[in-house]
Amino acid sequence: MDKEKLIDTIKDYRVAVYLVFIIAALIVLFPHPGPSGLETNLQFGLDLSGGSWIQLEFQSAVVTFKTSTPVDQFVTDLSKRLNADVTLVGADKIEIRKLVPESELRQIFSENKTELVSYNQGVTKETADDIKRILENKINSLGTRDAKVYVITGLNGISRYVRLEMAGVTMSEAQEIVGKQGKFEIRVVTTGNETEHVVFGDSIESVANPAQNPPNSNNWGVSFALSPAGAEEFRQAAIKYGAVKDPNNHNLAMMLDGKMVYNAPLSADLAGTLQSRPSPNLIASTGSGDSGKNDARNLEIHLRNGALPVEVKIAGSGSVSPELGDQFKMWCVIAGIFALIAVGICILVRYHEPSIVLPMVLINASEVIILLAITTFFMQLDLATIAGLIAVLGTGIDQLVILTDEVLHEGKVPSQNLYLKRLRRALGIIVASAATVFIAMLPLALMDLSTLRGFAIITMLGVLVGILVTRPAYGHIIMKILSK
């Protein structure tokens, strides 16, 4: 291609957009020499950088029932009988935060003239979201990088497992992160920003779920109970530091691992009660509306000292050494190079024309570069995402072959009008083909299937980058090359 045609090709908006994407991708990736060789801004998961994973199983059950007893009374009686938290999560559904065998539960229900309709081990979506948030808070507070938490939910909406993947963390460290509780403390403001200790988290005996306070209002709060000794310490500190007589100037501050998570004065009723006797049952109000509700849910987590609302047991675990991770990186690079070479050979055999092979291979490789740059913003590279990138190489070259075959007429480039007509038809075929791939991958991308999700997301992104950026540019480039 001569200089004039080259400039004319670059000026085309489709090619210009493609070049902008390539340049931006290289800037984002920022390949540069480092102590360990060529370094980039890519984030690697535990498959490629080493680390550990733990899969936890929830020791709880979600049960559907039929009863002639008033539901509130049934839930209260069942909670006392099982000595466990029992939460009504629907008109005829409860969550039992203790793993009770189905046979034993049927016997208990039968004694209470209640029918057990369905039994599923696990927790509801709301509880699973709380558990995920607790684990993410733990990981973030400990400064653990490159960690992911997946809640594995079935088609019935019940979550039975949660999976943690932590790059660069040993198995013993991962188990400590899962089991560690934070240091929770209630303090009272004295003067200025000075505070004094009231009670630690071990004085909290129980924490209720966030609820409207008062009931059926738009205000939210969290109820919790102190031990007798903790309630007396709370009372003495409130009297000593003036929170009883002047609550507005002596707020109560709740701290988790030294970070303030709640700050508010005593209510007038509670201040009056504390002057004469301890009050073990307290309510922390968090405000109204959705904001108050979200704050209440977060405060519940803090009050539990970061403990999970249900017991868990390790259902599976594993680790990858850093050395093995480095080997995986090397083999992934080799696999990608061989894939490109194989693609180039196949195209050369088909068309016997290097001027067709080179732009097809370069367009294919540049598509992978763009995808790698996109991944730096929101996901880590693991073996599944690498497999997705190699799959993009294959599907991408298929679409380029379709486009090339459509625009060629008896081995030659047709007239301009006929070329554009054939190009539009080829792009229509490619878009239809891409749509089927996109739809097929969508369920995997939406479901919490950890590694499979990364494969699906990369494949879908490859489809979008292809039909929006690289295919239109290739259609214009190949016309200019073949017209000679």
Report on this model:
This protein has four domains: 3-46 and 321-482, Up-down Bundle (Multidrug efflux transporter AcrB transmembrane fold), CATH 1.20.1640; 51-55 and 126-179; 61-121, Alpha-Beta Plaits, CATH 3.30.70; 184-306, 2-Layer Sandwich (Gyrase A, domain 2). The chain has helices spanning 3-11, 13-29, 46-49, 71-82, 102-111, 125-141, 171-179, 228-240, 268-274, 289-303, 322-351, 354-375, 383-407, 416-446, 451-482, and strands spanning 32-34, 37-39, 51-58, 61-67, 86-90, 93-96, 114-121, 147-153, 159-167, 184-189, 195-200, 204-207, 211-212, 219-226, 252-256, 259-264, 281-288, 312-320. The chain has a four-stranded antiparallel beta sheet with strand order 8-9-3-18. A four-stranded antiparallel beta sheet has the order 5-6-4-7, covered by helices on one side. Strands 11-10-15-16 form a four-stranded antiparallel beta sheet, with helices on one face. The radius of gyration is 31 Å and the shape is elongated. The chain has 15 helices and 18 strands. The termini are close together. The mean pLDDT is 85. It has 484 residues and is α+β, with helices and mostly antiparallel strands. Helix 11 packs antiparallel against helix 12.
Draw up the topology in text.
Blueprint: H1 3-11, H2 13-29, E1 32-34, E2 37-39, H3 46-49, E3 51-58, E4 61-67, H4 71-82, E5 86-90, E6 93-96, H5 102-111, E7 114-121, H6 125-141, E8 147-153, E9 159-167, H7 171-179, E10 184-189, E11 195-200, E12 204-207, E13 211-212, E14 219-226, H8 228-240, E15 252-256, E16 259-264, H9 268-274, E17 281-288, H10 289-303, E18 312-320, H11 322-351, H12 354-375, H13 383-407, H14 416-446, H15 451-482
Antiparallel strand pairs: 1-2, 3-9, 3-18, 4-6, 4-7, 5-6, 8-9, 10-11, 10-15, 12-14, 13-14, 14-17, 15-16
Helix pairs in contact: 2-12, 2-15, 11-12, 11-13, 12-13, 12-15, 13-14, 13-15, 14-15
